[in-house]
Amino acid sequence: MNQHIITIGASMGGLDAINSFFKVMPANIGASFIIVQHLHPTHKSLMKDLLLNYTLMEVEEVQDGATIRPNVVYLMPSGKVMYCENNQLRLLDRDMQGKVNMPIDMFLKSVAKEKKNKNIAIILSGAGNDGTEGVKEINKHGGLVIVQDEASAQFSSMPHAAIATGGVNLVLKPEDMPRKIMQYLKSGTRPQLDIVDITLEPSIIESGLEPFNKIIMLIKDHTGVDFINYKKNTILRRIERRMDILEINSISKYVDYIYAIPDEISTLYNEIFIGVTSFFRDEEAFEVIEKVVIPQIGEKKSVGDPIRIWSAGCSTGEEVYSLAILVREYLEKHGKLLSIKIFATDLSDTALATASTGIYSQEDLAMVSQERLDKYFDKKGSQHYQINSIIRDMIIFAKHNLISAPPFAKMDLISCRNLLIYLEPTIQQNIFANFNFSLNSNGYLFLGASESVGEMIRTFEIVDNKWKIFKYIGSTHLPRQSSFQISQFEGIHKENSSTYQTAQKKWLTNTLDKSISKIVQILQDTYIPTGVIIDEDYELVHILGDVNKYIKMPSDRVSLNLLKMIRKDLSVAVGTAIHNVFKENKTLRYNNIMVVDEDMQKEISIMVKVYNDTVYQKRYAIILFEEAKNPIDENIQEESFKFQTKAYERIGDLEHELKYTKEHLQALIEELEASNEELQSTNEELVSSNEELQNTIEELQSVNEELYTVNADYNLKISELTHANDDINNLLEMTNINAIFLDEEMRVRRFTPSVKKIINLIETDIGRSLADISTNMEYPNFIDDIRKVLDKSLPIEQLVSGLKSETYRITIRPYTNIQSKTKGVVVNILDIDAIQQLSC
Hints:
This protein is α/β, with parallel strands linked by helices.
């Protein structure tokens, strides 16, 4: 079945919310409803009987293995926990060993895996935080999450905790939820958003994509991530989803909403990232990696050589851990002593945090064999496992923008699965160019099943076409400047920029034949200098050409600081030059710097120029390395680099900075001491508040125990009343008394079976007025006499005849409660003829 599953999680105070929800929820929307509550393990729930008063749907208490059907409400029984598997509801005995009971989380996680985006999760009133992990999974798989408005919840802890996850789509009162759900179910099949179809204001229509671009800029300002190069349809679908949920029909109004509610930017940002992944996803593909790719990489390595792998767009880490496990198994099987460096990068801080901890649920590990589970994972609680240090230590997780940040180098394998399909084609080609730069000759590229290297196929050999695994057969390094642009920086070989841009564009589109490509290569080698661009923190932001002779990526910790990457015999010269140009805002060239390259000494020159970005108020340094001295520009300060002199100058600058740093540190220490005193005072207040809170908790615990006792008493009384009611029903069934019980409005409350031959009653007449029901007696004042008894609370007796000349004695008495108040009447009809016959 492909129906939507609507899971309702509730705890303390949830009964009223559930009733309010089902009062207005239609009975035929085609979805299945599953209610998961916190129930006392020995308490028999009355929820089924209560719900039948508010819904026409079938209500079932779940039996193990029940198949989920549409338009049915399922209730989790007491003393059990529940999960979803193969469209069935499975039950387990609740763990009674003092462990925290989280039945809502458990069920939501299982149904998220099972039904993906066909889920709607609702969190209602309750204490604690059950449901928080579950709503994250529902949101991750594309489902809808609705939470009860805290103001309307009797206990707001569960709704508050769910909202704090950032994965909630709607916050509503229970009675408002059904309408939103039906709107959502209808909008699930709507076509994707088209910017021209949205109701735009005239000023925005004139400006074309201005609202869309404005949203992209707001995301960039808030997160630092620029989505302008992502496919617009992908972004628009996510924007449309948020607009549907918020009931906003104009993209310009959505922009206004973002300005009014800044947190919406974070919600949209997290919505854009599509993190669908799993361990050993596409099992056949990983078999090719295990049996072909990794052995071919390992065979070429000698003792101590590194295997370097880059997982670009690693999401929550499942696939990169899968790769690490395969590499580990290869090394153990073949007894190889190789070092392993696996770089796992992503843009999402949330995904990286999950990946770095390496904690996954049992459902996440469904594709991991029991042998691997036992060997590479440690049990973490009852439902989770954590990757062990053997595998975790092989991987370095880092935030990295694949589009704008420099790529890693000397990779044996790059895995970038199901990421490129969300990027524009030109950006895809730029990224492929970066991958070419990153890969060793005969290195491997592992893409998603729906992705391809496109026009870059000439530099790759197909290993497996179905699972998109390729071997790089191009040169070790990409033609210089193929993927980095420097046209935005003024004053750097302006006379050659058009030649470079034209060559770059033609190279990326692969329309040139091999001869023209060689000419382009010669032009680039001749006119485009080798160098790097850094920011004021000395962080690398662009690479110009082949800089492998001058800098290299650290082999241990990932760092883009130039001074940690530059070769040692250039560190003083480069560090001094950068310091001076930033300090004096000038262009500087050092000549006659001696370096040793392949056992030969040679001279190089370094030119460093400052670029001031007036738009973003940032400064950059452009460092160019030249082996032959270019013609001197009169605006450039040129001097020979004397190591000893410059070293002393640099030491002097550093001593000055150190003195300033010491003075600044002393000031900070004094501020810290003052802050510490304030913190000490605050801590004492917190201790006092904590003691008060502890007392309050103890009082609440006492109240809770009293409430539980009262609740148990009520359950006992309900049980006693049920037994008493059963006794009365059996008594009335056995006697031949002709009696009927009426309420204050003369509506039928109950009657004995034998009275039906005198008054024409049927079972469905319960609740009807007796005035509407005919009798078999000649008693025209019957209803008037009943009204008199109700008004005066005095009994009336009458002798009346039946339609067949029978004789009846009618006794009408007031029906009184324990306070002696009249709450209705009891009519007793005695058949005189029948008594006389018995006495004869």
